[in-house]
Design goal:
single chain, Aspartate Aminotransferase, domain 1, Aspartate Aminotransferase, domain 2, 2 domains, four-stranded mixed β-sheet, four-stranded parallel β-sheet, 17 strands, 37% helix, globular, binds pyridoxal-5'-phosphate
């Protein structure tokens, strides 16, 4: 009997070892892991560069309070800002903390310029921004908020893709629009680049902030460091987490200089956020992702993977409805519930994970190789074949 509460429906399988794209059970059974902790192990399991970084730092210094300077964090913040729109960073420990911090930054910005009435956040209905009380209310999904008491005020919602409704929902109290450029949990729903461009324009016209939640789709997952880069726009605030720690818990909120001015001493904090151990791992992840050719490899592997998945889709149109995604944030949408299909993939030693709209999420490590992609394709095809019989 497990003493862990049942808030997860766990599969009856556990692992004792991981290496690159693979996981191993106690008895040595090998699985191709295309979940990677849900886009967390961006460089695969026990990546030597990360093992080295954590080993080295663990012998020097683990944790000091944020009331002292932390050079490892200064370095990671410098890396994050030099590669992106941002000029300031606040470190956290998780995605939900990062999205909450993003909301706080947006509100505090308007407060600091004497417009404290502007404090409402406009989000896509049934999006995903984490599991804290505020974040579930931002997500606006009944499944997540039900039974958790009074609604947290200050959130409005619009339906995915409905720009008319989006414009209508903006009032003189709206501080920011917060969206995932690629909705991960929701079913790998990609917001088209023209749409992101339009939303940026709307924000400019209405003088509100644009928060892009890159917790799942960021850190190279899309083939660019941030997925919004495909739209050639600049956000005001970006929460990140998952991939930046490569398996070590790190969250952060990135912001422009303009809004960062509002975050004066005492406005926000985190005991663990940005500690030397976490930061040294984050620095190693950044160095790997920005190595020459790394992101172009993600893109070429993605092109190959998507085109091969579409070939399978065309062979089995009664099973697969659509192939979705960008980079290595991919989804196979089925016509019917995906539970059984995911189980069959697992039986064939391929690990995947569900998302909304009958989607099977495929999240290989960013440094996956073609041979491993071929292994996955073969398993997916075989499972499709077994359905046709
Ligand atoms: C996973 C996720 C979060 C929450 O991250 P946690 O680390 O689980 O708190 C927030 N936003 C998006 C888009 C996510 O995918």
């Amino acid at each position: 009997m497990s003493s862990i509460a049942k808030n997860y429906k766990r599969r009856n399988i556990s692992f004792t070892k991981g290496k690159g794209s693979f996981l191993y059970t106690h008895s040595g059974t090998k699985y191709l892991d295309f979940v990677q902790g849900i886009a967390v192990n961006s460089l695969g399991h026990t990546n030597p560069a990360l093992v080295n970084a954590i080993n080295k730092q663990s012998k020097k210094l683990w944790h000091v309070s944020n009331s002292f300077k932390i050079p490892e964090g200064e370095e990671l913040a410098r890396k994050l800002t030099s590669k992106t729109f941002a000029s300031a960073v606040i470190f956290q420990n998780s995605g939900a903390e990062a999205t909450e911090a993003a909301i706080k930054v947006a509100r505090r910005y308007f407060y600091s310029i004497g417009q404290s009435k502007k404090n409402r956040i406009l989000c896509i209905k049934n999006s995903f921004h984490g599991r804290t009380i505020a974040a579930i209310n931002a997500s606006g999904s009944k499944k997540m908020t039900e039974g958790f008491g009074p609604k947290v005020a200050g959130f409005d919602h619009f339906e995915f893709g409905n720009h008319v409704e989006l414009k209508k929902k903006i009032t003189n109290q709206t501080a920011a629009i917060m969206i995932e450029p690629i909705m991960g949990e929701g079913g790998i729903k990609v917001i088209p680049t023209w749409c992101l461009k339009e939303i940026r324009k709307i924000c400019d016209n209405k003088k509100i902030l644009l928060i892009l939640d890159e917790v799942q789709c960021g850190i190279g997952r899309s083939g660019k460091f941030f997925s919004y880069e495909y739209a050639n726009i600049k956000p005001d605030i970006v929460p990140i987490a998952k991939g930046i720690g490569g398996g070590f818990p790190i969250g952060a909120v990135l912001m422009t200089k303009k809004v960062s001015k509002a975050m004066v001493p005492g406005t926000h904090g985190s005991t663990f956020g940005g500690n030397p151990l976490a930061m040294s791992v984050g620095n190693a992840v950044m160095d790997e992702i920005f190595k020459k050719g790394f992101l172009s490899k993600v893109k070429s592997n993605s092109r190959y993977f998507i085109s091969e998945l579409n070939i399978i889709k065309n062979k089995f149109p009664k099973i697969i409805k659509e192939i979705r995604g960008v980079g290595l944030l991919l989804g196979i949408q089925l016509h019917h519930d995906q539970t059984k299909f995911i189980e069959n993939l697992l039986k064939n030693k391929l690990l995947t994970i569900r998302a909304g709209e009958n989607v099977i999420r495929i999240l290989p490590p960013l440094n996956v190789n073609k041979k491993e992609i071929d292994m996955a394709l073969k398993i997916i095809k075989n499972v499709c074949k077994s359905y046709n019989n």
